[in-house]
Structure formats: structure tokens, C-alpha cells
Amino acid sequence: MNQEYKHEPKKSEIILTRLIGSTVLQKYYDDFIRELELDRYDVVLDYCAGAGQISSRAARKVTEGKLVYADVSSSWQAFASKKLSKCKVARKCLFHSFDRKLLIGQYDKIIMHFVIHDIDAKYRMAVINHMVMNLKKDGMIYIREPVDDVHGLKLYELINMIEATKVLTYDYVVRESFLIGKYADLRCRLRKEA
Ligand SMILES: C[S@@+](CC[C@H](N)C(=O)[O-])C[C@H]1O[C@@H](n2cnc3c(N)ncnc32)[C@H](O)[C@@H]1O
User: Fold this and answer.
1) Distance (Å) from CA 3 to ligand 1 centroid
2) The domain that contains 66 carries what CATH number?
3) Which residues lie closer than 8 Å to 20 by C-beta, 6 or more apart?
4) Is 5 inside a domain boundary?
5) Nearest atom (ligand 1) to Cα of 111
6) Residue 2: other Cβ atoms inside 10 A
7) What is the pLDDT, as a whole number, of residue 30?
8) End-to-end CA distance of the chain, in Å?
9) How many domains does the chain have?
10) What backbone torsions phi and psi does residue 191 show, to the nearest 5 degrees?
């Protein structure tokens, strides 16, 4: 699959994200990471890591493991790299298309936080299948997506994609937050026989 795209944030977007991430959204990100129950030996992929808000927190948890923060945007990668520069377990990964370059490891946990709705609908399924291929046995994919009427995806679209992989079991919960609106959390695990 060769969807080449360039999506670089404007400087104002980076500044705003930095400001919000270090103030009003701090607790939100802390709570998100706590719920993932990362093990210190885990090898984790933060797929489309953006500013690295999640990667930097995940890296502090996987002290004996590895954290790969991947993105299509070199501006976001540069920004996240500054944040993670002192972190021994962190590795960056800039990718340009949904090709095999991202098959750089086998992961215990893959995090996709507010990512799928940003990807062109016709590539979403392929991206999810690609993530499945990168999972270790018993590996998990954590997905959080906005499922507002005005923003994001429909919950059934997300569930249909997970079911269409045929190899993931899942549970989900839908919540609403004053800060980010209505969102769905899906915990997906590779079926034992897969
Ligand atoms: C909303 S941000 C989420 C960042 C991070 N996961 C977080 O929650 O803090 C979406 C990320 O997906 C990346 N991305 C990947 N594919 C994209 C696409 N087709 N269009 C826009 N952004 C895309 C962007 O570079 C960006 O880092």
C-alpha cells in the first residue's frame, strides 16, 4: 500500500498543542496511560504519536522495554524527539506511507490515540490490518477515537473494522469528557488461535 501523504502541522498548531498538553490536558493524558496497564518489559508502538504526549508517559512505564513513536509528520517527530531525547527506551520512526517500513518490530502493545479518524477512510482498514501484523502473540491494540456526531467516527464503523480483521477480540466503553467530547475506548487482543 502506497498512500503517500504529507501532513505537516502549522507552527500555531504546534504551539497550541504544546500549551494545552502541558496544562489542561496533563491529567487527561496521565489518566489515559494509567488505564493501559503497561508492563515495564513491554515493547510499545505509539502509532501517529504527534507531539509525543502519550509516548513520553508510556516511556516512563516501560523502563526495561522499548517505546517506538511513529508519525508521518517530520515536524511532529522533531517535536516529540525533543521531549523524548533523554529517554533511553524511546526510538523514533518517521514513515512516509503505509508500507512495510513500519514493520520494524513485534509489539506487546500498540496505541492508536485519536488517529484513525484522521486517516483517509479508504486506508483505515489496511492500517488496522497492518497493526495486527505487528502484534506479538497476546498483543493488544488500544484505540481511542472521538465518536461525536460532529467529529470523528461512528462507533459502529470502528467496531466493524475491528471485527473485519477476524483475528481480534475486543471490548469497548464510550465516555464523554468536557474537554474532548464523546469518545470510545477499544481494547483489542489477538485471538488465541490467530
Ligand atoms: C490528532 S493527532 C494525534 C496525535 C497523538 N496520537 C495524540 O493523541 O496526542 C493525529 C496524528 O496522526 C498523524 N496522521 C497520520 N495520518 C494522517 C493523515 N492521513 N492525516 C492527518 N494526520 C495524520 C498526524 O501526523 C498526527 O500526528
Assistant:
1) 15
2) 3.40.50.150
3) none
4) no
5) 6
6) 7
7) 96
8) 23
9) 1
10) -60, 150
Residue bearing cell 487527561: 28
Q: Give the CA diameter of the chain.
A: 47
C-alpha to C-alpha distance for 99 and 93, rounded to whole angstroms: 13
Asked if residue 1 is part of any domain, the answer here is no
The C-alpha cell at 191 is 485471538
| Alpha helix segments (H runs only) across the chain | 11-21, 26-36, 53-61, 74-84, 121-133, 155-164
Atom 18 of ligand 1, residue of closest alpha carbon: 119
What percent of the chain is helix, strand and coil (3-state, nearest 5)?
35, 30, 35
pLDDT along the chain (194 residues), means of 10: 66 92 93 95 95 97 96 93 95 74 77 94 90 91 94 93 97 94 96 77
Domain range enclosing 128: 11-190
Instruction: Report if residue 24 sits inside a domain.
Output: yes
pTM score over 0.90:
yes
CA-proximal residue: ligand 1, atom 14 (nearest): 48
